[in-house]
Structures are given as structure tokens and as C-alpha cells.
Amino acid sequence: MPAADLSSLKIHDSARSKGSAGKFLSIFAAVVGAIVLLGGAFVALRSRKPVVEVTAARAAGGTDEVTALNASGYITPRRRATVAAKITGRVTGVFFDEGNNVKEGQLLATLDDSDAQKSLAAAKADEGSAAAAIPDLQVQLRLAEIQLKRTQGLVDAKVQTQEALDSARASVDSLKAKIALAKQQVEAAQARIAEAQQAVDNCTIRAPFAGRIVSKDAQVGEMVSPVSAGGGFTRTGIATIVDMKSNEIEVDVNEAYIAKVKDNQRVEARLDAYPDDKDKYAAHVRTIIPSADRQKATVKVRISIDKLDSKVLPDMGVKVAFLEDEPPKKKDPNAVVAKAVIPQSAVRKDGGSTYVLLVKNGALERRGVTLGAQRGSDVDILAGVNAGDTLVVKGPEDLKDGQAVEIKQ
Questions:
Q1: Which residue has the higher pLDDT, 91 or 362?
Q2: Residues above pLDDT 70, as percent of the chain
Q3: Which of 27, 68, 159, 211 has its CA 20 to 30 A from that of 203?
Q4: Phi and psi torsions of 200, nearest 5°
Q5: Is domain 51-62+331-407 annotated with CATH 2.40.420.20?
Q6: Sheet containing 204-206: which strands, arranged edge to edge?
């Protein structure tokens, strides 16, 4: 087989130069595109505003009220119940909705009671049958007593034998026993009626106390049961009711500071949903639970609100200040009065100076502050901040004066 002649395979110079130029242009365009994309990404990153969390500086209190400790907790009702049925059954009616106020004993739902009604009817029939036999036995008893009296006279006159008298007396005693048995049967039937009636009543679910419905847990057609069954398809509750008058505050206090908390100690509470000073609630310590949580190193404290209103809802976040019981102090005209109270997390340090970052018109303003007394997690500000100023409490460490920021919602 002759060898292939490859010397005839050549690329023309014009074609070679043209291909090189096209390849160079393609590489150049790719590099330029990458530079443009990187530049755009850099500009986008530079233009992105850092997100910060803010709070409002609060007005400083007077010298009459001294805060011993600050803490956070939640509103918890003392009376909360998940209402369930005593029996397993199918829901045939639901007569409430979330948010409804209910009275004690108010009808909430009904279950299918067809089987219970049939059992009740059978028990009533048995009671009627047993009761109907008693009048007939009483008539027979009266006749037997007459025959006994007659036989007694004939025996006394030596006309009848003692055997006839004994037979007549036995008839009377037998009828009395039958009447007693019939009465017992009537009582047993009445007990079965009460049992059947209780089964019918168990098909009706009522409110155990007055309160507000906060959860609707079953619908018409669903099966409910007092215990979990059916592979998760059976409901164990009908509704959850909360007695709004029993709402109180539950706070976990670090065990290192629990000595500052005492029974009946005065407390000021502020709902997280309404942080304004005008929405403070006067309260007092109801009880200190005599047990600590070793995992969290805290002690649970329950606080009663002196005057509840419609704003106080279960599971709301709340901040509390435990007040020291000190007599009013005379104001020193030469003393420096605190202008505001802010969280310590809003205070930043730069060398030996302290400052805060205010947010005004979407931009930061660095302002030096003079610190006063600490109040738990808060601190008094003697100069530099006024009540109502918006301060950064959490954000990047490299925030700068004049930098545009976005407030976390």
C-alpha cells in the first residue's frame, strides 16, 4: 500500500492570519466582559447599604424610682385549657371561631350521639318494663294477704289445717319478695338510664370557664379522641381557651441577680409591641418559683400586672424593670441629671472615648456620650443623647459616620 503524501496539505497564509486575528478578538472580548462584570459586582457591593437594628432612647426616670434589675419575658396566662372530648367520636357541629369570647358552660361543639341515644332509649324501655310489673304484683299481694287472713280464721276455728295457713303465708312472702325484686330492677334500669344519659352528654363539649378562644383545633366531620389514636388522623382537642383576666408575666432571671428580686416587689413592664413610655404597666412580683434551671442558670419569676387591658395578649414579649423600694430623695440642684436611658449594646468605644451611632434620614451620625449609672442591661446617658433618638444596637463593626444604612424591619 503506497504511503500517504502529506506534503500537499498546506494552510494558506491569508487564512492563517485571519484565524489568528479572530481568535485574538474573541479573547479580548471575553477579558473585557469579565472586567465589566467584576466592576459591576464591585460597584453593587459598594453601593449595598449595611443592615442595622435600632432602638429609641428612653426618657430617664426621676430619682424616686431606682431600677434594681432589668429582664425580658413573656405574657403567660395562668388559666389556659385545651378543651377535649371525654369520648372518641365524630364532630357534627362547631359553634365558635378564633377570637370569640365564651362564657362558662357555653356550647362549643357536638359529637355524633346516635349510638348513645339508642342505648338511652333501651335503658328507658327496661326501666318501664320493670316498673310496669310492680302494680300487678301489688294486686296479687293484696289478694294473698286477704286469703292469709281468711285462712288464719279458719285455722283458729279448727276448720283448716296448719298446712293451708303455711301455704297462704308463703304466698304473701313470695309476692313481697317479687315486688322488692321488681323495685331493684327499676333502680338498676334507672342507673343504666343515667349511664346512657351521661354518654349522650359526653357528646356535647362545653367551655370549662369564661375566656377567649385562641385556637380552633377541629372541624365538622373530623374524629376526636381524648387520647392520640388513628395514626395521627384523630384530633385530641376541640379548642384552646385562655382566661385573659389571668394573664401575667413570666421572666427568667439569672440566678446571679435573683437576690435583687423579692415578693411583692414593684415592677414596671413594657410590651415589646408598644415600646412607648406611656404604655408602661405597673406590676408586682407574685411569686418566685423555688427552683432553678441548671441548664440556663435562671430562676423563674411570675409577675402580676396591676391593671390588665386588651393590649396584653398571651405569648407577647415584654421587658420589665424591678424597682428598688427606696424613699424619695431630694434633688441636688448641682447634680448632673440623666437625659436618657439606652441599652448598653448601643454604646461603642474608640480608645478612651465612648460614642453612639444615631440614625437620621437613613444615614449614621457619630456622637460622643457621657455615661451615667448602669441599670441592669441599660445605662443612663448624661450628655450626647436625647429621649426619642434612634440608636444602632446591632450591626457591622465597621460602621462609619455619615454612612447610609438600612434599618432591619
A1: 91
A2: 81
A3: 211
A4: -65, -45
A5: yes
A6: 204-206, 107-111, 89-94, 223-224
